[in-house]
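Cross-check.
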Amino acid sequence: MGGHSGGFPVRRSDDTRLHARYTSHHTVSGFGVGEHFHSHPNTIFPSSMNALRDLLILNLTLQVFDGLFSYQVFSLGAEEANPIVAAAISNWGVIYGLLYKKTLACVLLLLIFALRHRHALLVKRAMVLTASAYTCVTIVCLWKLLS
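Predicted model, tokenized:
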């Protein structure tokens, strides 16, 4: 099935995606050569996939810093508020308990990221929420530690 959209030749594939052909002098802001238009409202454009990857990297980095920060705080005598992680720390020690906690968190982030092709908008919101929550918790912990 073919047609024209805004002066560009367009065809629809079997999976209902629109494919447009561009010449070097025809550009549309936000779309590059060879990118696909998705008609489903829960999908985002390929350039946003880079943003999801960046959000994953940010979240994984926050997990590493949270682990290092937690280790420093536990060295000063603080206790873990999460009872499951507190049990892991008391049974396995601070290093292995924190390693368990951070490994589990990173695996869950990777599972969320794995859904990006089917639920990109939901994944983006989850990654932003997770990064925001960890940032807020870190700020509050620093504030309590310094006061």
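The radius of gyration is 22 Å. Residues 46-75 form the longest helix (30 residues). Passed to J.P. for a second look.
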